[in-house]
Amino acid sequence: MSTNNLLSQRPHLGTISGMRLRDQSGAINALLLPLIAVVLLMVIALSFAFWAYQGRQDYKNNSDAKVAAAVDVAKQQEAASKEKEFAERSKSPYKTYVGPSAYGSVSVVYPRTWSAYVRDSLNQSPFVDGYFSPGVVPDTQDDNSSYALRVQVVQESYSDVMEIFRGRTSGEASVKVQPYRLPKVKSIVGSKVTGAIEDNKQGTMIVLPVRDKTLKIWTESNSYTNDLNKIILANLTFSP
Fold first, then answer.
1. Is the pTM of this model over 0.85?
2. CATH number at residue 225
3. DSSP letter string over 217-231?
4. How many structural domains does the chain have?
5. Chosen domain end from 84, 103, 123
6. Same structural domain, 56 and 161
7. Could you say which DSSP state residue 112 is in?
8. Residue 209 within a domain
9. Could you tell me if 231 and 94 are in contact, meaning their C-beta atoms sit under 8 angstroms apart?
10. How far apart (Å, rounded) are the C-alpha atoms in residues 220 and 146?
11. Widest CA span of the chain, in angstroms?
């Protein structure tokens, strides 16, 4: 047998070695991905366990303080609620002011905890000029004073009074005007004005025609809107 034939019958060692290397590389790659996934899952699990442990420790260490704080908040809310209920109950029984019959016998029902200062005049407008406020009525000569309720019967006609507001339905000092009837005097239709009823004063004003004159009822602070609606306007009467 010739040397060439012997050489040709030898195994191809280089080819076999290359196949083994490729097989090993593929096996490594196949094992590497699951290993990375397992490591990531372990990291996530450890992180969650640490977070849970910290939460338990925080609750364990501060539970008494948190319970005490929650109890204090509940007590404060209960006290505020009871104080509000007491304030509402203390407003009744209500007081009543009745104006001169010549100007419609305007009857104003207001909380017992409020004070009133009303000027009646048969010769000069406003014929009824009332100031109402919780506690003591502020100085009526001070332009900076603000009142829970104001009531006036003025000489101007209803249309003249409303003309003041018709040009103030837009801009910063704007008002909203809509028709209004008193619950107890439904035969008379007037207007409800909300917004900047006066310079630097936000509130609600009811304007109603009373014969050839005009009745105005308003609050100079939105804080008293609830009293205006539920007590004052709900019980207000006059003779048309």
1. no
2. 3.40.1000
3. EEESSGGGHHHIIII
4. 2
5. 84
6. no
7. T
8. yes
9. yes
10. 6
11. 151
What the block records as the tokens of 189 is 């239709």
Q: Which amino acid is at 89?
A: R
Counted residue by residue, the chain has a size of 240
Q: Which of 52, 84, 116 is the last residue of a domain?
A: 84
Residue found by looking up tokens 């100031």 in the block? 131
Is residue 192, in this structure, part of any structural domain at all?
yes
Residue 103 lies in domain: 95-235
CA distance 97 to 231: 13
> For every one of its 240 residues, what pLDDT tens digit does the chain have, with 9 covering 90 and above?
444 444 444 444 444 454 454 555 555 566 677 778 777 888 887 877 777 777 776 666 666 677 777 777 777 776 666 666 656 777 879 999 999 999 999 999 999 999 999 998 878 899 999 999 999 999 999 988 999 999 999 999 999 999 988 877 666 668 999 999 999 999 999 999 999 888 788 899 999 999 999 999 999 989 999 999 999 999 999 999
63 and 105 assigned to the same domain: no
Distances (CA, A) of 82 to 72, 76, 86: 15, 10, 6
Q: How far apart are CA 185 and CA 187, in angstroms?
A: 6
Q: Which residue has the tokens 């009133």?
A: 116
Same domain, 123 and 222: yes
Those residues whose C-beta lies under 8 Å from the C-beta of residue 207, and which sit 6 or more positions away, are 158, 161, 162, 190, 191, 193, 214, 215, 216
User: Whole-angstrom Cα distance, residue 36 to residue 42?
Assistant: 10
Residue 177 maps to a domain: yes
**Looking at residue 84, what DSSP letter applies?**
H
Same domain? For 113 and 13 the reply is: no
